[in-house]
Amino acid sequence: MTIKDRPFPDGFLWGGAVAAHQLEGGYDQGGKGLSTADVMTLGTNEQPREITDGVVGGKYYPNHQAIDFYHRYPEDIKVFAGMGFKCFRTSIAWTRIFPNGDETEPNEEGLQFYDDLFDECLKYGIQPVVTLAHFEMPYHLVKQYGGWRNRKVIKFYMNFSQACFERYRDKVTYWMTFNEINNQTNFESDGAMLTDSGIIHQPGENREKWMYQAAHYELVASAEAVKLGHQINPDFQIGAMIAMCPIYPLTSNPADVLFAQRAMQTRFYFADVHANGFYPQWLLNRFETEHFNIDITEADLATLKAGTVDYIGFSYYMSFTVQGTGTLAYNEEHDLVKNPYVKASDWGWQVDPIGLRYALNWFTDRYHLPLFIVENGLGAVDQKTADNQIHDDYRIDYLTDHLRQVKKAVLEDGVNLLGYTPWGCIDLVAASTGQMSKRYGFIYVDENDDGSGSLKRYKKDSFEWYQNVIATNGSEIE
Ligand code: P53
Q: In this prediction, what percent of the chain has a pLDDT beyond 70?
């Protein structure tokens, strides 16, 4: 069987993906409250973003302005429509709807903003695909309640999701509950813990334990949201969102293979709970032996069972590799080794297109659910020429190489894939570093790391390439 000259399935959702805090800006407008994304400064690959105690004068916070999508979205959506987007993945900033998180009534101005944004998409036949919590939550919930350490936050999240489900009942079909909920597997990263769980660690506490506790409340909240969403509109498709970085053994040494398996079990148990509705036994055993005393009630277990997801959304950028360490306790901060068979991006992310086909098959075998690639892409430095061209052939190559593997997975392996939304379809603020110079877009935004620049938009070479991929429904990928 060949993939040459064959299209993707009818109705395949080609589009692009972004997240509220990384492009909207307007961080204090329309009644919006302060979010966790608003207290993170600019970093680099070597220098992690600083998490400040509130907004501190004299520091630069890239998400405050981002690319000003808050004011420019009609112009940007129009350009997406010109590319032929069938869908557009974005998130709803929790703090536009519940500025502090613990109010009883939602903020009408925030709700109206997303009504207008979704209407603008629908006008062009672009369906919004929406993440509820994408790496941000009200900062007040962090300060006042300890973020997702606190069971009370489940209720606040439910208020938020209910307000969104009800308001956008007839505008949105595809939802995701928590972006990359499993990125906190790297619990030693302050950034990952804040963005995923609103956790600011106290010195000396057991970080791993708190990661599992926070993730448990999030998984319960997700399951409750799935249940509620289906009551509000039975046609809703509510998914998980998992950061898929397959983890390979460095060698065929059985100790490496076993450790890689446990690393995968650890990084993806979140998806197990989302999709199966229960915890894997190895992890419950680990909670016991480590005396983590995670607060998991019988009622929680029933909720998890009753609120399994409809599909698995996932991001894919890179693969990881590990070597046996003599223990099975996987620690992402320390246990990753270089894979000699793949190259890395300028930010050290191991570029591995075949790993995407592997991932699609792995998810399918494990959960037998529809899949949705909701992020994929190459963060790279782009040069704008004097005549305003951006020749990003490296990005076209990256995406073509990945789409080739996706196409094989769909057409040859029979994977059920709903769509493909490359990350940062317009340049935006990088999550890990806060940089503008780590660009993913088909559309270049004239803005520097320090926020200077005209914010004008320019089409890159990849724009026309992707436009053609969509117009031909991928049939030219071979
Ligand atoms: P940036 C780590 C590993 C894989 C995906 O990332 C990740 C991260 C955290 O940075 O995040 C996702 O912008 C995330 C997006 C993010 C994108 O990947 O750091 O869902 O919000 O922007 C790319 O290069």
A: 100
**What is the model's pLDDT at position 360?**
99
Which residue's CA is the nearest one to ligand 1's atom 21?
A: 431
- Measured by CA distance, the residue closest to atom 17 of ligand 1 is 431
34 CB near ligand 1 (under 6 Å)? no
Q: Kindly tell me if the per-residue pLDDT of 1 is higher than 80.
A: no
Q: At 336, is the pLDDT very low, low, confident or very high (cuts 50, 70, 90)?
A: very high
Scanning the structure block, which residue is given the tokens 């148990």? 269
Ligand 1 neighbour 315 (Cβ under 6 A) = yes
Cβ of residue 19 lying under 6 Å from some atom of ligand 1: yes
Domains of the chain: 13-471 (3.20.20.80)
3-state DSSP assignment of residue 21: helix
Residue 303, token pair as written in the block = 């909720």
> What token pair was written down for 40?
């993170």
**Cβ neighbours of 205 (radius 10 Å):** 11
What is the CA(180)–ligand 1 centre distance, in A?
9
Residue 240: per-residue pLDDT:
98
- Confidence bin at 26 (pLDDT 50/70/90): very high
Structure tokens at 329: 């306790």
Give the SS3 label for residue 446.
Answer: coil
Tokens 């994929």 identify what position?
Answer: 376
Q: 431 CA to middle of ligand 1, Å?
A: 5
Dig out the tokens for 78 from the structure: 């129009």
Decide whether any atom of ligand 1 lies within 6 Å of the 423 Cβ.
Answer: yes
> Looking at the annotation, which residues are catalytic?
180, 375
